[in-house]
Design goal:
The complex is a heterodimer of chains A (about 120) and B (about 110).
Chain A (H helix, E strand, L loop, with lengths): L4 E3 L2 E4 L5 E6 L6 E8 L3 E9 L2 E5 L6 E5 L5 E5 L8 E8 L10 E2 L3 E5 L1
Parallel strand pairs in A: 2-11
Antiparallel strand pairs in A: 1-3, 3-8, 4-5, 4-9, 5-6, 7-8, 9-10, 9-11
Chain B lengths: L3 E3 L4 E4 L4 E7 L7 E6 L6 E6 L3 E5 L2 E6 L4 E6 L8 E7 L10 E2 L3 E6 L1
Parallel strand pairs in B: 2-11
Antiparallel strand pairs in B: 1-3, 3-8, 4-5, 4-9, 6-7, 7-8, 9-10, 9-11
The chains are: A mainly beta (about 120), B mainly beta (about 110).
Chain lengths: ~120, ~110
């Protein structure tokens, strides 16, 4: 158990809908990362937040947005869902996220299926 | 060209065999190199990381970096069925004040008893 929790574990929804994925980082970790894992693209970095502020952005679609709240939990919002958004979404956390060899601890993921 | 390339396998070997997993990368500025292990339906977990060229050993696992060839390897000695998982190489690009990870595609490994 990494100490990172994600809810829900599974999500089935229809195209065009909007969903919210939630992540609670390990106690004391200030950085939260979101990744998308699909069969064809592998594990792709979406966005990083540090202590409530956006710190780094990857290939995150405009239909996707995230935020980190004062209690440090984070939410990833996916809107106007398409079939291709079906994937595993992972949250990870680390103490600072300032670079180097700092370990990122991954949650168990949310499996999203868009029908 | 992808920043990190990894043969997705799958790779299947008998128990006790030595396993070699490899990645290549394109950016010579990369400094840290990590290996994550991901069991089915679980999140990735950090297995090892290295900073410089050469070898780093941890039990049955050895991570090797060749910066001149931009090539990283993970060796597993005396492989066990419990090592069956997907192994991902991961590299944090040197972005000041941020740490995204760039992952290889992952190699699915099966150790057969």
């Amino acid at each position: 158990d990494s100490g990172v929790t994600q809810t829900p574990k599974h999500l089935i929804t229809a195209t065009g809908q909007r969903v919210t994925l939630r992540c609670s980082p390990r106690s004391g970790d200030l950085s939260v990362y979101w990744y998308q894992q699909s069969l064809d693209q592998g594990l792709q970095f979406l966005i990083q937040y540090y202590n409530g502020e956006e710190r780094a952005k990857g290939n995150i679609l405009e239909r996707f947005s995230a935020q980190q709240f004062p209690d440090l939990h984070s939410e990833l919002n996916l809107s106007s869902l398409e079939l291709g958004d079906s994937a595993l979404y992972f949250c990870a956390s680390s103490i600072q996220g300032a670079g180097g060899q700092e370990t990122q601890y991954f949650g168990p993921g949310t499996r999203l299926l868009v029908l | 060209q992808k920043e990190v390339e990894q043969d997705p396998g799958p790779l299947s070997v008998p128990e006790g065999a030595i396993v070699s997993l490899n990645c290549t990368y394109s950016n010579s500025a990369f400094q840290y190199f990590m290996w994550y292990r991901q069991y089915s339906r679980k999140g990735p977990e950090l297995l090892m990381y290295t900073y410089s060229s050469g070898n780093k050993e941890d039990g049955r696992f050895t991570a090797q970096v060749d910066k001149s060839s931009k090539y990283i390897s993970l060796f597993i000695r005396d492989s066990q069925p419990s090592d069956s998982a997907t192994y991902l190489c991961a590299i944090p690009p040197p972005i000041q004040g941020a740490q995204k990870l760039v992952f290889g595609q992952g190699t699915r490994l099966t150790i057969n008893p």
